[in-house]
Every structure is written in structure tokens, then in C-alpha cells.
Amino acid sequence: MKIAVMGQGYVGLPLAMAAVEAGHDVVGFEPDQHRWQQLNWGTSYVEDVPSATLRAALESGRYEVARLEDWLNDFDVAVITVPTPLKDRQPDLSYVRAAAKTVAAHLKPGATVILESTTHPGTTRDVLVPILQDATGWTAGEDFYIAFSPERIDPGNTAWKFTNTPKIVSGLTPKCLEQAEHFYASITQNIVSASSLEEAELAKVFENTYRHVNVALVNELGRLAHVLGVDVWRTLNLADSKPFGFTKFLPGPGVGGHCLPVDPVYLTHHVRTQYGEAFRLVELAQDINEGQPAYVVRRLQDTLNTRMHRGVHGARILALGVAYKAGTGDSRESPAAQVVGQLEAKGALVDVMDPHVYAPSVFRGPTPPKPYGEYDAVVLLTAHDEFDLTEIAEQAAYVLDTRGVMPVAPHIERL
Ligand SMILES: NC(=O)c1ccc[n+]([C@@H]2O[C@H](COP(=O)([O-])OP(=O)(O)OC[C@H]3O[C@@H](n4cnc5c(N)ncnc54)[C@H](O)[C@@H]3O)[C@@H](O)[C@H]2O)c1
After folding, report:
1. In the prediction, which pLDDT does 329 show?
2. Is 259 noted as a catalytic residue in this protein?
3. Residue 190 pLDDT exceeds 90
């Protein structure tokens, strides 16, 4: 089959590689010039796709990276994996619409168009289908096929990857579902079929909402435990000894990445604006999680006052990790970046070290720019494997550990 993958990001690139591996001819459509160029040079910017895999795909002759639409002609399946961010704190479907228009201009009868981007229920039917039908004059489900299959990729997860993570697949009609199942059966091991597009869309957005709400619950528990003088991490371990009815979530500096801070808003905004309904628990969770970076800053501020008898202004602070989670270089919506920003806004002199993140202000080396002991405080924000926790514990004057991974000691506080 000839496959067009719209967007070569964290979702689209692994999908394109899996399709090449399965023997399909793949065009990865990527409008971002920098990304397009890197891919053509055989340099992967997605951790889960080694550059060697990308280069092998290019050399196979079955993978091409395109910025020009002409390359999209003749596809059998187009998969849309474009961003669904927030704009002014509201869902922004402009990328989905733009990609749909591009796909529509090259659609041939009998082709299948699949949306993978995370979005609110109704998007595939009410946004994607009309764009394709209006541009072609054809009927979805008869002249071409429509499906929604949410992506569950977990960057940095070495156990659950694109091919072995169960894949939810849904179609506009039974024939649409069949076409999409046929495609995914060639690239993934386990398909879970949904009976409607909306069920699949809601399932995806709920998966992330569930995590978001549970993370908020333990973040608030952590704040209360601190007031009570109880170690929340040990408390959670105790609760986790119950073999049924409890799933452990961990506190942290907040939630980040493209999913948790964003996806629940698609759901809450949609039900509020379209149906006048509130998803109250989710809105409360958003408040709690969004306040977590400021809570970390407050904790640091308290420590600087009480232990070091100094203010945040002028304090030398080392922030370890700016990616939103361990093992990834993705710092989108990162709470760690917010902690750093808020500390700097208060006049702190912050050095940031992250071996995964490429940015001019971030040190990537194995050691910080100054020895650990020369900082007033070290704050561990992302628990990358590369950080030598023993060395940090031995040398730092004070550590605030927001991930609960450091050994317990008088100069080490956990959130
Ligand atoms: N990153 C994750 O871990 C993850 C996991 C599950 C689901 N998702 C969802 O998948 C979708 C994509 O996320 P991502 O992390 O891959 O984003 P990304 O920003 O890494 O990649 C999207 C790519 O689409 C390109 N693009 C923008 N407009 C386009 C257009 N009109 N046509 C073609 N390409 C276009 C961008 O240049 C970008 O490279 C989002 O809806 C996201 O919520 C992401």
C-alpha cells in the first residue's frame, strides 16, 4: 500500500517507520523546514526512532519525506498525526483542518483517511468528513473511507512501543472500520475495535483525563502530607501494597507534555460550549496541577528563608531536568520550565541541566557548569537516568527532590 503520513512528529515518525518496516511505501509529509531537512539528512529528533532506523528507511527507497504536496498523489491510506494544541486556552483544530484540506486535494476514490490526533468526540465526523466531502463532492463511507484511531505512544517507554501497544480503531461505517483494521493489522499486533468514532475519541481523551485527575489527587495529597509532616512517597508505597482497587500515581512539579495539560481541556471545553455541561472534577484537577510549579517555588523559597536565611533573589539554583518527563527531550508545556521561569522572575540565578533537551540555555554535559556544592539549592525536576543521584546527594548543600527518587538525608527534602 502507499501510505501518506501527515506530520512527522512524535506520533507520525514512529508510525511511518512501522509502515516502512511492514513493507509499505510511505511519504512522510512534514511542512516544518527544519524537521524536513533533519529527516532528509537521516537525523531523528524523536527518541523512540533511532537515526539508524530512519536512515535504513530512507535507503530502502520505501520512505520519502515531503514538503511539497505533489508527493502525496495516489495514496491508499492517509494518516493525520498533526498537533492539536490549545490557543488562548481553547482547543485549536486549525492543524487538523489544514491537513484535511491537503489530503482532500489528493484523495482518490477508495482511499482511507485516518485521524490519529487526540481531540474531542465529534471531530472526525463533524470536522474531517465535511472538509473531504466538500472538496471532492464524494460521499464518505461510499467513495472513500474515514476512520479515527487514537495514538497512545509513550515517548521513552521501552516496554510498550508503537507495535505492541493495543490500538483502538473506529470507522464511520462498518466498511470504513474494516479498511482501517486492515491497515493497522499490517503494522500493529493488537487491534481493539470501537463501535463508533465518538467512542474511540472519548476513550482516548478520557485515558489522559484519568491520569490528569489522579496526578492532581496525589499532588494535593502531597501538599497536605507536608503540612502533616508525613512523607507522601512512603505513604503511597504503603497504600500500593494493597493488591486490588488501588493504582499508584506519583506527585511531581506538575503535568507537562503534549497530552495531560492539553487533552482534558478538549473535553471540558467541548462539553461546556456545545452542551452547557461542566466536567467539574477535571476543571478542579486542572487548577491543582497548574498550581504545582508555584508550589515547588514556594517550597524552595521557604527553605532558602529558613535554612539559608536568604531570599530567592540572587540565590544560585541548579535545576536538574527541564523535559516534562524522564527519558525524553520534549519540554512542551513542561512544569519544570515553569518552575525555572518563576524562579528567574523572582531574581534567582538558575542554571538548567538536561542531557536530553537541546536549547541554548540548557547545559547538556554530565556535570553542571559549577560544582553541585556551589549552589544554594539543587532542585530535581526530571528524574533522567543520567543524573548521578549519589554524587548529587554527596556534594549538594541542599536538594529539593520533586520526584521522590533521592535518598533520604537531612539536606534532602522530598516534595
Ligand atoms: N507526543 C505524544 O506522546 C502523543 C501521544 C499520543 C497522542 N498524541 C497526539 O498526536 C498528535 C500529534 O502529536 P505529536 O506529539 O506527534 O506532535 P508534533 O508536533 O511532534 O508533530 C506534529 C507534526 O505535524 C506537522 N504539521 C503541522 N501542520 C501540518 C499540516 N498541515 N500537514 C502536515 N503536517 C503538519 C508539524 O510540523 C509537526 O512536525 C497530537 O494530537 C497529540 O495530542 C501525542
Report:
1. 86
2. yes
3. yes
Task: Tell me how far CA of residue 96 lies from CA of 104, 108, 167, in angstroms.
Answer: 12, 19, 21
Please identify, by atom number, the ligand 1 atom nearest to the C-alpha of residue 152. Answer: 6
Query: Mean pLDDT across the chain, nearest whole number?
Result: 95
Instruction: Indicate whether 211 belongs to any domain.
Output: no
30 lines ligand 1 (CB under 6 A): yes
203 in a domain, yes or no? no
Q: Is the Cβ atom of 325 under 6 angstroms away from ligand 1?
A: no
pLDDT at 118 over 80: yes
Element (H, E) at 337: helix 335-345
* pLDDT tens readout for residues 355-406: 999 888 899 988 899 999 999 999 999 999 999 999 999 999 999 999 999 9
Look at ligand 1, atom 35, and give the residue with the nearest C-alpha.
7
Residue 29's domain is classified under what CATH number?
A: 3.40.50.720
**Best probe residue, ligand 1, of 82, 131, 160, 325 (max atoms within 8 Å of C-beta):** 82
Range of the domain at 376: 217-414
- Do 255 and 385 belong to one domain? yes
Nearest to 26 by CA among 53, 54, 1, 51: 1
